[in-house]
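ARCHIVE CARD
SHELF: 3
SLOT: left
DATA:
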Amino acid sequence: MKSVCVADFREAARRRLPKVLFDYIDGGSYAETTLAANVADFAAIQLRQRVMRDVSDLKLSTEVFGRSLSMPVILAPIGLAGMNARRGEAQAARAAQAAGVPFTLSTVAVCPIEEVTAAATAPWYQLYMIKDRGFMIELLARAEAAGCPALMFTVDLPVAGTRYRDARNGMIVSGLGDSLRQGLDGLAHPQWLVDVMLRGGPHILGNIAAASPELRTLSQFWKWVGGNFDAAVTWDDIAWVREHWDGPIIIKGVLDAEDAREARRRGADGVVVSNHGGRQLDGAASSISALPAVADAVGQDLTVLFDGGVRSGLDVLKALALGAKACLIGRAWVYALGADGQRGVATVLDVMRRELAVAMALTGCVDVRTADRSLLVEG
């Protein structure tokens, strides 16, 4: 079946990938209520259809932190993306470059910064607070040397959320039985096995390999996260990051308006309204329901970006109408990567562009930079 939307790519990825990998990208924490709300709350927002508005000349481009984007979409950081397709982060970065949108590289990516930069335009870099500050300084220096134009400081993972799918699959705590099941599952997916396991090495966390060369399995990767991410992170750490980074600092993981105001007070350049894709605190607000209050609180002073539940260009327009400058997509691009590599990511971006254009035309919005709440049916 030809994949023509994000849901199609999700199904294609489910068929192609081993269960442990698909569930890692598809799942959320606990009962996954926040994960579901991220999508359902978008669906409940109604666009206001308008007619006779002269929509013959649509402008989808925008500017974020002095950089031109062909449309208000950014590829979000996805950990271990390179396990879903051969050198997956590099493939996604090439697709993003061709589409004229930024790609954000995760701290816990398979491909290191240097490889991704060699493959395409320097990515935005996503940073977690790690206990070893000396190693963090090295990471920031590498990102700066690679020419990364922005730093996305993710702050909503001081501790890892409880993800039942990962526990059932043995990704978090793996024994002999789990390893055997994962091995058999890999053999049952020969296309992925050849593409990734046989041809896609080295299977390491490229950005942290120097500090942890012994990491080789998914379970080991996850245990490293639990042991090295710093639960003592506070707002004071933004000043520390600023000492070692000259470019824009974007705080990712903000759901509360007061936290957004604190980010502004601490000198951040932007915030990402996000609940980590429903993978952290289950029962937290959906990202889209939290967006208006954050945008109202700081939208004139900070660049407000959005993440969580974006599955179409229509969703992008809804988020812009509620105050976002641009949207991050995560699962949307990694489903496509797992299904069809760089070509899949390119297709998803093209689909979103066309969906956004149609939504703009049918709401009478001719320029994404002017999108506001007048595009929505008042609830």
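SLOT: right
DATA:
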Amino acid sequence: MKLIIIAGGKGTRLGFKTIPKPMAEVGERPIIYHQIILAKKYGIKEIVILSGYLSEVIEGYLKNGKDLGVNITHIKEERPLGTAGSLKSIESMIKEGERFMVFYGDLVMDFNIKSFIDFDKMYQPSIGTLIAHPNDHPHDSDLLVIDNDNKITNFISKPHNKKYYRNLVNAAVYIFSSKIFDFIEKDLNLDFGKDIFPNIVNQSKNNLLAYITPEYIKDMGTKDRLDKVCKDFTGGKVAKLNSENKRKAIFLDRDGVINKNFDPFVDIGKFNLLDGVSESIKKINQSDYLCIVITNQSALAKGFINDQELRLIHDKMETQISGSQGYIDGLYYCPHHPETGWDGEVRSLKIKCSCRKPGIGMLLQAQKDYNIDLSNSYFLGDSQSDMTCGKKAGCSTISIGNNNFEYADNKFCNLNEAINHILTFQG
């Protein structure tokens, strides 16, 4: 598989005058160097670099790639053509039906490329697959809307016109089919986020998929972000978050831990975070733990709400959490309920299942999806079923609220106290 690196950034906001953006140093090496080494690790050795501004600096440093064990072709655009417009210039280098990978040259990252390629293969033929993830600044990022089959159904370019949104951001790492060129006009300045992806997803016959991962993929477009990624790189966080490595998680029940516990269902107008929740989740994000929500939502089976209404509630939750630059890495909900007797209930969901807490099906799925070490993870909840679930899965358990539950290893009044305890204990 070929790798195309779009490396035309100037780094104006960073104050660069003598180097282009992809040559910003992280760990005493340019960002574009780290990208090439990552690709080589997973067997990608044919690399095309699309540059423009100060392209001679990039070419002079990397040359033909021989010293790095790869083969690099340099292509300089004569005038800025945007992320998509520049890609059009290499159309003749891609065979019909060939799939290739694209990086933006300002990304600091370490992710399991093999898993990304394997995911893309499952959905072929398709136009392509985008890596997506939550981040701490969704308000100025391009957002994705996906269905239950990982197909992108809407692409929301910044600035957003939605009141509530899922924090699911385009990470600017792609695998494309050669068919992508059919959507890009030659010699025009075009951007994937604004001009190309919305056009593709509006045509239902053209599948564009999202591969969601919590691995480290961050842009360094501002001085603050550059400082942060440099710190994360030298501290080992960038490499540590590769999905080949085991992760630990803090699992959170939703109702009663994140928001007030309404019974029998939550109306979106009444849904609001409990005090201190968004700040607490931000603390989790800044640690080595994943933040994953595990919630029973039997209101679906009982017919009180439908899937679309639940999705909007969760969008509101994620929007409110992002107000403090926090985010949820994953969210799992069980729609089932074993008992019958409600008007409007959904018969297909009235079953006994392994996912409904105190069953551990949702935790096992999260373990598989994120390579989680459950024995080094925590489950925080406000009910006996939460404590039983966490204990059965092998997690440490913490009860939130004024309750004394069996199997609770610790008890705290609120989420903030619990997170402070965990992070101090792990200190």
